[in-house]
Task: inverse folding
């Protein structure tokens, strides 16, 4: 295959927060292979904190999907073209669309880039044959590894597989002040992110309350709770707290994503459901105990930065990867990827997890953590 040497690269990841974080190994490896290249990243609004302050990223280009959707049809078309021409005017040599979908394909088409990398399009005649280089399907592979297919396509070396997140000194100071105020030392607390914006990923509130009480009352280690500043997440946390016999520190809704990442780096262990915060914890090299239901662990399990190959060889059931543990049942229907059983927003496979097995794994994670 012909050698390439792009001067300016655009990576597009129009998905969710955790998806964007898992593209950071691709960014790093492209920079290692092309140290003089300028690398920009285009993401949906709300995901920019996953790649901002990254020393390998020149510019984060934000697509405000929710804002544009509220416009009239004419204004929406105008804004879409303005966004596309902004990308075109940046004169990229190489554009990479890391997910399937028409938006990335359309932008690649309009970018004017000589090298366009992505996935085969659908039936849309405008996006069906956009790319110069096509990527393979994911199959039973981790999403992080799928993102690195770009390097394999061009026979480029994959030098590392580390997920990275960066924050500011101001974030450090704010979190340190909070811990000092709460009289909690670094590495002397468990970070629990109990909820997700998708409630069908949450475990039974009673089980989560038992986990909190077990940590605080039996293991004698403080728990700090976080959640996004979203009303239904806060309400869910408040319900969990009402079921607790102990009093954890509740920071739900009070921290940004960067500040939450900063707090997480100071934790001894992370416990939570399949969310971006779980991926952030893995990026921070904090031992993770995660609960999976509708999600496939082979695609989304917490990635251990100290290894080069995924340890997740099944789609469900209990699995490990380095310092991380995923607890899931082994039902034939898992992972279904659905928003709860019969669209109830409640996943039966997460409602009756074995609390004694969970306790044992919490204790093991605490013993093994540094």
Result:
């Amino acid at each position: 295959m012909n050698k390439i040497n792009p001067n300016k690269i655009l990576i597009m990841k129009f998905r969710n927060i955790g998806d964007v974080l898992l593209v950071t190994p691709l960014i790093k490896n492209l920079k290692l292979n092309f140290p003089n290249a300028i690398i920009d990243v285009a993401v949906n609004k709300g995901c920019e904190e996953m790649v901002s302050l990254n020393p390998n990223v020149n510019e984060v280009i934000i697509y405000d999907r929710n804002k544009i959707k509220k416009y009239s049809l004419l204004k929406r078309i105008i804004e879409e073209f303005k966004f596309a021409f902004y990308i075109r005017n940046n004169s990229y040599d190489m554009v990479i669309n890391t997910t399937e979908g028409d938006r990335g394909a359309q932008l690649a088409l309009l970018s004017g880039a000589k090298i366009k990398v992505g996935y085969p399009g659908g039936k849309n005649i405008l996006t069906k044959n956009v790319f110069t280089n096509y990527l393979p399907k994911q199959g039973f592979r981790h999403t992080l590894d799928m993102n690195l297919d770009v390097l394999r396509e061009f026979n480029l070396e994959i030098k590392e597989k580390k997920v990275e997140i960066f924050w500011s000194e101001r974030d450090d100071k704010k979190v340190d002040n909070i811990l000092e105020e709460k009289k909690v030392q670094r590495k002397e607390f468990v970070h629990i992110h109990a909820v997700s914006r998708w409630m069908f990923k949450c475990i039974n509130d009673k089980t989560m309350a038992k986990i909190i009480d077990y940590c605080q009352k039996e293991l004698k280690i403080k728990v700090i709770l976080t959640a996004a500043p979203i009303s239904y997440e806060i309400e869910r946390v408040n319900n969990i707290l009402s079921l607790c016999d102990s009093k954890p520190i509740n920071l739900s809704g009070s921290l940004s994503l960067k500040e939450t990442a900063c707090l997480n780096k100071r934790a001894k262990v992370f416990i939570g459901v399949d969310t971006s915060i779980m991926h952030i914890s893995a990026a921070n090299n904090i031992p993770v105990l995660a609960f999976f239901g509708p999600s496939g662990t082979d695609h989304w399990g917490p990635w251990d930065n100290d290894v080069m190959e995924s340890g997740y060889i099944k789609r469900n059931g209990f699995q490990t990867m380095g310092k991380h543990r995923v607890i899931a049942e082994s039902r034939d229907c898992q992972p279904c990827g659905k928003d709860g059983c019969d669209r109830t927003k409640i996943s039966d496979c997460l409602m009756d997890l074995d609390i004694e097995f969970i306790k044992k794994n919490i204790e093991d994670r605490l013993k093994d953590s540094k």
In short: The first strand starts at residue 8 and ends at 13. The chain has a mean pLDDT of 94. Residues 160 and 228 are 31 Å apart (CA to CA). The longest helix spans residues 73-89.
